Amino acid sequence: MKRKVTLIVLDSVGIGALPDADKYDDAGADTLGHVINTCHPDLPNMMAMGLANIDGAAFPGAVKAPTASYGKLREQSPGKDTTTGHWEIAGACLSQPFPTFPDGFPRDFLDAFEAAVGRGTIGNKPASGTAIIEELGEEHLATGKLIVYTSADSVFQIAAIERIVPLPELYHDCEIAREMLKGPLEVGRVIARPFVGEHKGEFKRTGARRDFSAQPPVTMCDLIAATGRTVYGIGKIEDIFAHKGITKSNHAAGNPACIEAALSAQREDFDGLLFVNLVDTDMVYGHRRDVQGYADALAAFDARLPEFTAQLGPDDILILTADHGCDPTYKGTDHTREHIPLLIYGPSLKGGVDLHTLPTFADISATVLEAFGIENTISGTSFYKKII
């Protein structure tokens, strides 16, 4: 059977704190609940699918006959970052979290990195990306030193103005850092953060961000690709999986471009997985605590959702989910440890099946693999038979 599964990750759109959220200082976080109840975005299409019917949904909009099957999933892996969330969705659960560096990176590593790239560094602390370029952008202009920083996530980020550090050089510096960050320093991602501007108050990040992830273990992407099927990544998917198991990609930047790229890819004739990340809810609005912007981004996606469902073939499947939370009403600027929502729809699938709370994000990959008839031993339990 030829089939296309479109899996859309609405980045950071969590649906309530996990039972262990207190260990992450995230008790009470609820990205969807707080955004919807604060700004009341118009989400008729996701509501019709059953978004507000999900166990514990703390917002109005439940319907009597959801068109999709629905539920939420717990994260088995420790952490609350993009890499961990996406890898678990794809069937790879971590036993240990990626390391974080709340006091910055060790001086001996930075000395070695500076020698390897031929530039000094400034920063080396947890920071908001927009805040640190405001703080250090003029010093970077004056000295040519790279701005390096981290966050509550397991990341080593390098910010530089494109005319000072051309993109090929910045990407190469990230590749050097990726090779050097091994063992206890092996962060989940090294991220290139190019920006432009000449003076404080004018600095602005560009869309040329690149992520350099740690190498993932075997995931559903590898298993699907091994059968000769297509695994088509949209947005930063190829970076999150270090290109492993990805057979085709479109590195579009920002939700509008990624939505257009995904709709275009969905129209292509292939058998396999279309794996999409829509990053703006996280990067542009969640981390910046822009509640209205977050709500508007959800509404903008919801308005395009009928275009995705209209293009489904008789055996195709559409899955909507997230990878963690980033509650813009919560304290701080970092991700929040939350359940992720699940809506799964297809012309040949049942609607209205309540899947309740599933024990791991990896149940998504197990279900996708069963839908393709691929035997596997990766993490997760399929719910496919419940919805056909």
Write the layout of secondary structure elements.
Elements: E1 4-10, H1 31-39, H2 44-49, E2 69-73, H3 82-89, H4 107-117, E3 121-126, H5 129-143, E4 146-150, E5 155-161, H6 167-180, E6 189-196, E7 204-205, E8 210-213, H7 220-226, E9 230-234, H8 237-240, E10 248-250, H9 255-266, E11 272-278, H10 280-286, H11 291-310, E12 317-321, E13 340-345, E14 354-358, H12 363-371, H13 384-387
Helix pairs in contact: 1-11, 4-6, 9-11, 10-11
Question: Would you give an account of this structure?
Answer:
This protein is of the alpha/beta class and about 400 residues long. The protein folds into 2 domains: about 5-95 and about 215-385, Alkaline Phosphatase, subunit A (3-Layer(aba) Sandwich), CATH 3.40.720; about 105-215, Phosphopentomutase (Alpha-Beta Plaits, 2-Layer Sandwich), CATH 3.30.70.1250. It has helices spanning about 30-40, 45-50, 80-90, 105-115, 130-145, 165-180, 220-225, 235-240, 255-265, 280-285, 290-310, 365-370, 385, and strands spanning about 5-10, 70-75, 120-125, 145-150, 155-160, 190-195, 205, 210-215, 230-235, 250, 270-280, 315-320, 340-345, 355-360. The strands form 2 sheets. The protein has an 8-stranded mixed beta sheet. Helix 1 packs across helix 11 (about 290-310), helix 4 (about 105-115) packs across helix 6 and helix 9 runs parallel beside helix 11 (about 290-310). The two termini are about 15 Å apart.
